Amino acid sequence: MTLSCRFCAAPLEATFADLGMSPFANSYIAPEKANAMEPFYPLHAYVCSQCFLVQLGEFESPEHIFSDYLYFSSYSSSWLEHSKRYVDAMTERFGLDESSQVVEIASNDGYLLQYFVQRGIPVLGIEPAANVAEVAETERGVPTLVRFFGVETATEVAANGQADLLLGNNVLAHVPDLNDFVGGMKVLLKPGGVITVEFPHLMRLVDENQWDTIYHEHFSYFSFSTVARVFAAHGLRLFDVEELATHGGSLRIFGCHEDDVAKPQTERAAELLEREDAAGYNALETYLAYGERVIEDKQQILSTLIELKRAGKRIVGYGAPAKGNTLLNYCGVGPEFVEYTVDLNPHKQDHLLPGTHIPIRSPEFIRTDQPDVVLILPWNLKDEIMEQLAFIREWGGEFAVRTPELTLAS
């Protein structure tokens, strides 16, 4: 079956990275279902030779993946701090007040909008996972519409008022119907309003070999050049961009209606377009060369873990993130290497990781168990986690973390 690009509909034939067969990265398994059949799907990323959008095929509907979700943004203190800084900066830069309307797409558990609420700025969250949306409303006072976002939802919401600030953090990659999603943003944005969207930067994924951020729930991977093409096709212009440290290196793009002359292109937006072009992100060869690096990294990870086990070291994990599940499944690492992992999210505890069936426990277990090595799976939060688990040094414990190669740190 020939796949087509989800943006420009050109045939998808060029491989970016082939990570074999893998389960859905967030499909955590209840212990009583440990022996049930588990579906695996190709984790094969292609690149469009016309628009250079890196993307996966769609094997399950978004309704199946996201309607009952176990990812709660508020369990990361560094992510909450990032969100508060964002609210402070946007409020000041764009003069938001009690007469403004802020709408967040994929608002999760109200982790970000709560800070606008505290300032008395009207908000609306749009979140497809009812279990997560309920937490936003009951615990954080964030009014939340339980819907998937696209032109239809945008039209419904816009009938009651358009958004002065329309934002979406780490959602654009999760959208299979990219044109419907960005088209909806066009509908919902007030004239003179601003869109901000954050997503992992493809350039950082390639430069730092972050292939473990590829998983089925991420349908697309963006350079600034490609995302600008997508927005332009829907009458939206990207006028500014910030490069962020979050998620191993992200972009925060700023968009407006194409005819909004009050928002000229910034120097940093022009510079990033030039830098990507110079680095080859508008040339197919750049993308085709990446797959070999992924294979070499897999070999290095396995070699390091094998050496540790042969030295008699006990290895456990920290975190149960999607990127960790990609790494473990692609490398074939199960409980024979990593005895268990721990996670702060109680919704994941007492489950098994998909594919590998590594058990998930509470973080307190590490203190009593005293393993030799803690493998940090959400490497983007390594500083926060190493501080949290500083006590492992009491018994000579070490951390293993990708930076980008897997190395030990005490």
UniProtKB/TrEMBL annotation:
Organism whose genome encodes this protein: Solirubrobacter ginsenosidimutans
Domain of life: Bacteria
Alphabetical list of Pfam families matching this protein: Methyltransf_13, Methyltransf_14, Methyltransf_23
Name under which the protein is recorded: Class I SAM-dependent methyltransferase
Gene Ontology molecular-function annotations: methyltransferase activity
Residue ranges of domain Methyltransferase putative zinc binding in the record: 5-66
GO biological process: methylation
UniProt cross-references to InterPro entries, sorted A to Z: Methyltransf_Zn-bd_dom_put (IPR013630), Methyltransf_Zn-bd_dom_put_sf (IPR038576), MeTrfase_14 (IPR013691), SAM-dependent_MTases_sf (IPR029063)
Domain C-methyltransferase span(s) in chain numbering: 246-404
Keyword set, alphabetical order: Methyltransferase, Transferase
The keyword Cell division appears for this protein: no
